[in-house]
Amino acid sequence: MKAILCLEDGTYFIGKSFGKAGECFGEVVFNTAITGYQEIITDPSYKGQIVVMTNPQIGNYGVNDNDIESDAPKVAGFVVKDISKIDSNHSSVSTLSSYLEKYGIVGISNIDTRALVKILRERGVTRGFISTLDLTPKTIYEKVKMVKDISSLDLVSEVTTEKIYKVEAYKSSKHFVVIDFGIKKSIIKYLVENGISCTVVPANISKEDIEHMDPDAIFLSNGPGDPANVLNGISIAKHFFGKKPVFGICLGHQIMALAIGAKTYKLKFGHHGANHPVKDLRSKKIAITSQNHNYAVEDLPDFMEVTHINLLDNTIEGMAHKNIPYYSVQFHPEASPGPHDALYIFKEFKDMV
Amino acid sequence: MPKNTNIKRILIIGAGPIIIGQAAEFDYSGTQACKALMKEGYEVILVNSNPATIMTDEELATKTYIEPLTTEILEEIIKKERPDVLLPTLGGQTALNLAKDLYESGILEKYGVGIIGASYEAIKRGEDRALFAKAMEEIGLKVPPNAIVNSLQEGFNSIKEIGFPAILRPAFTLGGTGGSIVYNMEEFPSKLSAALEASPIHQVLIDKSLIGWKEFELEVIRDTKDNVVIVCSIENFDPMGVHTGDSITVAPAQTLTDKQYQMLRDASLAIIRKIGVDTGGSNIQFAVDPNSDDFYVIEMNPRVSRSSALASKATGFPIAKVAALLAVGYTLDEIKNDITKNTPISFEPSIDYVVVKIPRFDFAKFRESSKVLGTTMKSVGEVMAIGRTFKESLMKAIRSLETDNPYLFMKDYEALSYDELITNIRIPTPERIFYIKEAFMRGISIDKIHEVSHIDKWFLHQIKELVEAYKEDVPFDKNYIFELKILGFSNKEIAKKFNKTEKEIEELLQDLSPTFKAVDTCAGEFKAYTPYYYSSWEYPYYKVGQEEAIFDND
Predict the structure, then answer these.
(1) Which of B259, B393, B396, B506 is most exposed by smallest CB count within 10 Å?
(2) Are A126 and A27 in contact (CB under 8 A)?
(3) Which tens digit of pLDDT belongs to each residue from A181-192?
(4) Catalytic annotation on A334?
């Protein structure tokens, strides 16, 4: 079956359908990770986004029950050069295509993904629309123009947990309240592995409820969309600043920046991959990191120090208060997918409490 | 750390004559290194016994000695030139061995010459099997277990740790008489007895058999600040049992999940640190169980290797040049990526294409040599192809071989019986891939071919898809032929399929041509200033309101 992907500038690609037949739309981003498509697909931070993989051979090792970052695929749509018809790995339970079909995710393959990536790189943030139902470019072009800007959407409420739940560490020494803006499972896994018991709470939790839980620290998770829309998160970070240790990853980091009067801005095409070098300015060591963000922070107040920078474009990748435990990183220390170089961040979170 | 200004003169040892297992790739890396160090203002003293190399060209070193690569000659050169340091990691095993000898004989100490790149201890740990195994154990990694036994009882004690299947090799027998593979405890006593009997000294070497395990290589690079990056992962199409140099290999690795890949990455970082390669590149080989996440470390080369040259060309990351600069004190974040210009080399390349290497054999020259591939390298060279998919890349690589049959689909093997065909797939030879194609032409299943060859089913499926496209009963249609071009078929093969002439195919395709895509180290994420290109048949894209298709180059 044929499929069409049309961008908001009128560029379109005709390819083949995989996953579910139908239509989907969102902000189109590309990810340069060579491995880990299943983790990427299930990462809630991709809510509202169509993901293009630069690695042309996708689906080779199928999908399994462990490499998931949330309960189901979260991407709006999926774009690859070549989708494997078979799954070849002892861990696999299904082909990628049938997995996506099961969860209703529309995919397109057999297009020049490199040409697409270069268009996204040059144009910056771009909306897209995929259809397998109507292949008329003009119609799809009209539809893509109707797609809402991602910064106008409240995506967090679509991916946050509904209920409060606890994950106890085996040898627990600390207790964090983890605010779920669309958290990746691996973040909880590594917090727990570091001896931190987590109470995972919805994004709309009240400050009073958190205070009532009396945690050792507040942790703000990753998640989709524009940090400026996450008003409750910003107000929680503001409230606990100086009262309790506050930590964050990715969207959580951006929220923490906004809470102390720093700014966030949208990067041209974001950072999505598993090969970005980040320098820890305290140790001078470089970690190869997993990245997935479209916004970055700037203009930190004087009481903050920049702890990490991205060596590819010198953007801020980590910040810490000079005196109190208020520390966050932009990259993903939990990797998944990606290198484990930055796992030490979880230990730092624990040691700062 | 900026470059070390205490060093003025650097001695580089080349790889010597071209032999099987050590060919032009070391000239490629040595030349890169000489150029980089000369540009940095160092005096480079180069010694190589092979004048037919680029590195021995006049302007590439301050002084070049074309002399035999022996400790005696090296001592004379050191005495005369008084280099500050020796950089032994760019001339293959030859240079590494010489460095070891020069160190052990006290010559380096006598003339106050240091070693940069890899220390004496690192060279030793990388090479000595027992030291290497011990080092791996200390960091919680495994090498394939083995034992030398002199009695049944010793055999029983050892086999517990080694596990089945195991290979029994009687000591001092000709052609492996009495040797066997044991699959379980029932047959172990009788087979071990037979093997002990067969050995004149009643001694048997028991090796863990990794036949059928998947084989991977990682190219690792480290700087003085202990920053480590993986340049490239390589997966062997041919599973364990065929020497990497004789295997078809693919970059990047295709059949590992991220967790499985990170497991090998974590191990690689631990290994390069443990072995103590202070700066520069190393190549680490792994065997991975296809049925679990179990894996063994096969070996590590604490130097630039044959695979480094492949990884460099496959990714655009100049390993030898970077290794040379790291050896004189630079750190990875201080070296710019030549291709993207604005980003540093302290990253891991991402590639948006597939690279296939196929070894080239010359059995016409080595008549007495069997074509059966095993653990001793036999190939005399290799070809490397780049394509947007494995299928395209494989087809291009086969065409580049320049053998008498450099096309997957030109020759048929109809005369072979089923049993002969299966045997030709079971026993690895340079032609195995052609027999696999033939098996798919006959409708033999992936499962059957996998069972006898242990080649990963994903690779087999790719070949099956090529066969299906070739066999598909379709009219002579331009759109279909364009799809065949994207799959990597040559005009010759397409002409054969449709019973047409090559000229007719050319005419049909005259308004179409392949695109040229950049090798840019970053999968298109950044603008490339000095990339190199490969050709690829790609799909076009369009603009609303415009008729013509746009084929994207660059």
Answers:
(1) B506
(2) yes
(3) 999 999 999 999
(4) yes
